[in-house]
Write a structure and sequence with these properties.
The chain is of the alpha+beta class. It contains four helices and eight strands.
Length: 185
């Protein structure tokens, strides 16, 4: 059994939204009695077009282009979980007349509305839509705060970007750097 507070590193290989296998490190620590642990995971630059089945199932729209990144850090102690999730969308394009030519007028309007909302919520310095929300509660009954998520979307778009910390965390966890030409301030 590892010593209390010893680092625990797990390498996970999986395939999702891509034909290429993905390897990620889950880093954390575990106490001697196994009543607590923490985990951090992140991934950058998933092609959102490959996520269209998910987008259609959850939001009833598809995307023509864009990149999705996320970072998650969670701590579990006894039966309680606490942490946060940070999603980020970059270069998101929802509506394209050629791709959506056969859709009915209401579907076209809906996708234009979703695309317009995404454009409105972009941080004007970096062109990204980002937020951060807390995840907390008992295992099996974990909650997020929707109001916090929405308020942080507006904060990122109009007040201050959540991106500098996001990029540092992703680089630390995954070794992934931002694509050239996109700099968060």
């Amino acid at each position: 059994m590892p010593a209390a507070g010893a680092a625990l590193v797990v390498v996970v290989a999986m395939t999702y939204f891509s034909d290429e296998p993905l390897r990620r490190h889950l880093e954390g620590s575990m106490n001697r009695s196994l009543t607590g642990y923490s985990v951090s995971v992140g991934h950058a630059h998933l092609n959102m077009r490959r996520m269209n089945d998910l987008m259609k199932a959850c939001g009833k729209f598809d995307v023509t282009s864009g990149l999705f990144s996320f970072f998650c850090q969670l701590e579990v102690k006894d039966v309680m979980i606490d942490g946060y999730i940070r999603p980020l969308f970059r270069d998101l394009k929802v509506y394209e007349a050629r791709q959506d030519a056969e859709e009915n007028i209401f579907r076209k309007l809906y996708e234009q509305l979703v695309g317009g909302l995404a454009k409105l919520l972009e941080n004007h310095k970096g062109g990204e839509v980002a937020t951060k929300t807390r995840v907390a509660g008992k295992l099996g009954n974990v909650r997020t705060n929707t109001l916090e998520l929405v308020l942080r979307l507006f904060e990122n778009a109009f007040l201050s970007a959540t991106l500098p910390g996001f990029d540092k965390e992703l680089a630390r966890i995954s070794g992934v750097r931002k694509p050239p030409g996109k700099t968060a301030k």
